[in-house]
Specification:
The protein is an all-alpha fold and 64 residues long. The protein has two helices and no strands. Helix 1 packs antiparallel against helix 2 (35-63). The longest helix has 29 residues, at 35-63. The radius of gyration is 15 Å and the shape is elongated.
Amino acid sequence: MSRRVGALVSDRGVPVRAVLPAGAVSAYRSGASAPWIAVGAVALLGATAAPVRDVRRLRARSAG
């Protein structure tokens, strides 16, 4: 049960972290430095990797 809750929590982080790249692009257009876009992309990549990892763990536990 706790693994399912953990997967649900990490799944909810994806939309929250998707705001960071959008804000980074907006800041870049306003004159901020370019590394903000890279930071936003890395955060989004990390946010999408966590739910994928959690779902794989859940499927491995239920199959085996």
